[in-house]
Design goal:
The complex is a heterodimer of chains A (414) and B (120). Chain A is mainly alpha-helical and 414 residues long. Chain A has 21 helices and no strands. With 120 residues, chain B is an alpha+beta fold. Chain B contains three helices and six strands, in the order βααββββαβ. In chain B, the strands form two sheets. In chain B, strands 2-5-1-6 form a four-stranded antiparallel beta sheet. In chain B, strands 3-4 form a two-stranded antiparallel ribbon. The chains are: A mainly alpha (414), B alpha+beta (120).
Chain lengths: 414, 120
């Protein structure tokens, strides 16, 4: 018996491992993907009838290699090329048994998918498709893009890799730092897409977070020590955020803010793992934006209650973040932390300065943060005006419901 | 090896008022660059183009020839020259393109050529 869900699970777990090796050996994304798809298709047809083979993964690999050879034979008239391919594929099963080869292939593929000659959104899509085994439909849904448009984006990127001669390799030392930054950015973008509550199918979004973390783990193990610092910091940041996932969403799907989250729902083991990763990153010399944000996340997780949070240290960390990576959003977060550390008036003054500068015009979290501080100060009428402004700007349903509830509260003078 | 066309786009107005010694220095940089890619074996060909004021665009519509004054497209930066190079992959082609002196003021487009011998 091979229920469809078992094959699904195998597909999800093995694609990211088998595909990079197939792509390296075949030198062609499309051929490798097609062969793998055909192998899984064959599994769906045969396994329920004939029973699951004793070594499902080996079966998939064998079938994929036969299909690849068939395809090349059909499409290629050059016999010697087929012979070479057969030879290359002979060693495939052996190489798939040795973990370092798989890992090397995954890293090579990650750098290929994140080549700077590809558009950033194509980098993310291609990474999810070839290293995480997400289907085009799933990726399209996650990014709110129609499936045909996403399919076109992926196909175009694959064609560019083939036709423009994007190398299938980890870049040379001189470029490695810059290119690694792009790889980390792609992974973090993937995570954020899953983490930020912008609606959509919540299940797929948790999947995105988990895939990003899985990729982050691969990168951390494969990079040399000098580059591992930032990668570990990014992994720490993702793990620490992810540890709060069960507390961030109410049973009705609504958003729960940090200070109202049920802290018993935070995953303690993950918080500890994240803290250990951060510690490791710092000891390797990580001092960049990922490390600072991870430190902020770790301080939140350490606090047993909102009142126990070390807000003074968090404000200090935001200062450092602003110094190396200035952005108005960071300034807004800092103002919210100042409100906790030094009182709502101080925070409100800083938010008002930001509002006056106009840089965050149209960003709903600015009036939402203002509204929250005004509410805490008991200035309900002004708070209501700010909540209305935030409501006119937000596009997310969960957030809308949250803001509407608050608006009702302050309108009643509570 | 893949053949790439590296096309150099610059605002040609920048050259109009340039003092002679600056132009001479730039030409020297181009000579040195060309020499270096000849030596490394990447060079296939290359030319500098006269300004777009010398360009004529030809179209044939319904069998009728239309000839107009000027380039294919009026843009802020103009095609001013090109190199044809052989490189092992896009990374090598990008590395060569980034050494073209014109990349400092303008931009260089890197495009692979179709290899017809690989088709069929």
């Amino acid at each position: 018996m091979a229920p469809a869900s078992d094959i699904d699970k195998l597909y999800r777990e093995e694609t990211g491992r088998i595909l990079p090796t197939l792509i390296r050996l075949l030198g062609d994304f499309t051929l490798a993907e097609d062969a793998l798809q055909e192998a899984f298709q064959a599994a769906v047809e045969q396994w329920p009838r004939e029973g699951t083979p004793p070594l499902p993964r080996a079966w998939i690999i064998q079938t994929a290699r036969h299909r690849a050879i068939d395809r090349v034979r059909r499409g290629q008239r050059l016999r010697e090329k087929t012979a070479l391919l057969e030879q290359a594929l002979e060693g495939l099963s052996a190489s798939l048994e040795s973990a370092p080869v798989i890992a090397d292939d995954q890293l090579r593929l990650l750098y290929t998918c994140c080549h700077p000659s590809l558009a950033p959104e194509a980098q993310v899509a291609l990474t999810l498709r070839t290293l995480c085994g997400l289907t085009t439909e799933e990726i399209a849904r996650a990014f709110f893009v129609p499936t045909p448009a996403m399919a076109q984006r992926i196909v175009r990127a694959q064609r560019k890799i083939r036709d423009a001669g994007v190398p299938y390799e980890v870049p040379e030392r001189s470029e490695l730092r810059e290119r690694t930054r792009a790889v980390l950015a792609t992974i973090y973008l993937t995570f954020n897409e899953g983490y930020s509550a912008t609606g959509g199918d919540s299940l797929v979004r948790v999947d995105l977070c988990e895939e990003a973390i899985r990729l982050g783990r691969i990168v951390v193990t494969l990079l040399s020590e000098t580059l591992r610092a930032e990668a570990s910091a990014m992994l720490a940041l993702m793990v620490l955020h992810h540890a709060r996932r069960f507390a961030r969403v109410a049973p009705d799907g609504g958003l729960v803010l940090l200070d109202q989250q049920d802290r018993t729902l935070w995953r303690k083991d993950e918080a500890e793992e994240g803290a250990a990763l951060l510690h490791k990153a710092l000891s390797l010399g990580a001092r960049g934006p990922y490390a600072i944000q991870a430190a902020i996340a770790a301080l939140h997780l350490q606090a047993e209650t909102p009142a126990h949070t070390d807000w003074a240290q968090i404000v200090g960390l935001y200062d450092r973040l602003l110094a190396i990576d200035p952005s108005p959003i960071v300034a807004l977060n800092r103002a919210a932390a100042v409100a906790m550390a030094e009182g709502a008036e101080r925070g409100l003054a800083q938010i008002d300065d930001l509002a006056a500068s106009g840089v965050l015009r149209g960003y709903h979290l600015l009036p939402a943060s203002r509204a929250d501080l005004l509410r805490r100060l008991g200035r309900f009428e002004e708070a209501a005006t700010a909540y209305r402004e935030a409501l006119s700007l937000t596009r997310n349903d969960a957030e809308r419901r949250f803001l509407e509830a608050r608006l009702v509260e302050v309108s009643r003078g509570r | 090896m893949i053949t790439y066309l590296l096309t150099i786009y610059e605002n040609e107005k920048l050259y109009e008022g340039k003092p002679e010694e600056e132009m001479a220095q730039l030409m020297g940089e181009y000579d040195a660059f060309t020499e270096s890619i000849k030596k490394s074996g990447n060079y296939v060909g290359g030319e500098a183009l006269q300004p777009v004021a010398t360009a004529t665009t030809v179209r044939v519509r319904d069998g009728k020839r239309l000839t107009t004054d000027g380039p294919f497209a009026e843009t802020k930066e103009q095609l001013g020259g090109f190199y044809l190079v052989k490189a092992k992959n896009l990374d090598e082609a990008i590395a060569i393109a980034s050494r073209i002196p014109g990349a400092k003021a303008g931009s260089v487009e890197v495009r692979p050529c179709v290899d017809f011998s690989q088709q069929g």
